[in-house]
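Entry 14: structure prediction run for Knr4/Smi1-like domain-containing protein. Input pasted below.
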Amino acid sequence: MTVDLTQMFERLEHWLAAHAPRIHAELEAGASDADLDALEVATGHRLPAAYRALYRRHQDWGQTFPLDHVPLGHVLHEWLVWQQLEAEFQEMQDHTSHPAGAITPQYINLGWIPFLKDWGGNSVGIDLAPGPGGVSGQVITFGRDERDKYVLASSLEDFLQEYLCRLETERVTSSLSDEPPGQAEHLALHDASGQPVDTYRTLADLFPGFGASPRR
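Run finished. Output tokens:
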């Protein structure tokens, strides 16, 4: 099934304007194709159309998701940090893919391109170098503390579609924090019991019911 990304983004923006106006007000202008082309050249990976479309719509989606969106200008910075660490940290022991075989079980893989992060060295991103049981472009968790890595969706389109479905069916809670310089709005998805998930052991906990994420 073909996903109309433009329509999906319009629905997402409409929902934010109605239910999370602070987040909607902070959406930034879109990135240029030249900027996205430069990221492809630097990483050596061709970006999926949905990833490019996400950033062309807004180069920074702010707090639209349960984790902070990574502005396009920071994506390359984060990738370069991993590139610098790759030679020193080739570890594969104690890294697990969920489901088995979908994600290459290792600490660092330069085919992982982030779009969400927790500011603790952990990310949700697209996997352009999947394991034998995975698909290129799948959305996964990875990072400093993410020894258990989870496939959240088979593509960014599917991830966005599922997330939008949660918003439009009211399976999300919006709350305000008092972090400086002013109140920030935060979205938390509901688990199977209808409770908002605002704490986590692994990033996949924040996306209950997505792909292979742990049951909550």
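Notes: Residues 5-19 form the longest helix (15 residues). Will compare against the previous run tomorrow.
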